[in-house]
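Q: I have 380 residues here and want to know how they pack in 3D. Can you give me a structure?
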Amino acid sequence: MRIGITCYPTYGGSGVVATELGIELAALGHEVHFISYSQPFRLSGREEGIFYHEVPVSNYPLFEFPPYDLALASRMAEVAEYYDLDLLHVHYAIPHSVSALLARQLLAARGRRLPFVTTLHGTDITLVGLDRSYLPITRHAIQESDGVTSISNYLRDATFEKFEITRPIETITNFVNCDVYEPAKDAAHREEARKRWAKCGEPVLIHLSNFRPVKRVTDAIKTFARITREVPAQFLLVGDGPDRSVAEWLAHDLGIHTRVHFLGKQERVNELLPLADLLLMPSEMESFGLAALEAMACKVPAIATRVGGVPELIDDGVTGLLYNVGDVDAMAQGALDLLRDRARLETMRDTARRTAQKRFCANLVVPQYVKFYEHVLSKA
């Protein structure tokens, strides 16, 4: 198939999943065309079978806000017609599904059918889409999509409830390439790599996010502060965003800044995750929890919050530990209990990896998307 993919190309779960999906589809022999305002950050530009098409946006002085959604719709239609795309797959409903709907109508007027699939990722439904100024158009675009998928049952059910959607939505979970995200090859190699941040035998914790308020990165700092009072440890924070400065100052004020390492955005997250003992994910909301899955594949259990779709990923007490939002004392105690009980931690690490392999590996999930595309095209 020839598939057009549109996503936000920045550092965030929906963009990561869309990009990884494109890479996996190309590896299966499909032709993938990314259509966005910049190249997705996980694309190297050298992948076989993957093409990128930039969306130019007018800077005409009349526009206080450049009309990206209209420019995107035009570019979608152009790329689809020129490269004879079979369908579009848009990630994050706003504004991508609306733009795809416009592109479909543009081509329909010229006698060409262009079906599109919308994948719902989270805040496009639970936060942004519920804004009264966006709700009607978001509902309409979802209803008019030729196929709709959701990354968790939680998000699927929330969409039915909050948007009064009457069409079917299929859950296809996020995934991870288990050959890329894997544990360190051996203990000696892992310990040597950890020396950059930690003394021999010193625990390493990690947090991975886009540092938006919903990720509650300051809770991660507070949790780590309680942990390192009793067990000297090191904390790696991967990513960047609006709450980074607040988190940096909090680490300084708590007197732990020499143990907290802000690494910024990293392309090779798969090389950092295996170095950690635990992941801290104290989010206020996660429709799935991709960071936790990537960590699990690397044999790193998560200390996470019991929200959204996280319980569908993490089996509490088996592949990680779940707590109420904001309960930093309990999260810290749970982490301390694991760090002090190495046998239990090792069992949890092994189980987390096996769960990722059995349920969430790319070779299990990506074929579900292919099958879904075929179903959509059979109705077109």
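Q: Anything worth noting?
A: The first strand starts at residue 2 and ends at 6. Residues 243 and 355 are 32 Å apart (CA to CA).
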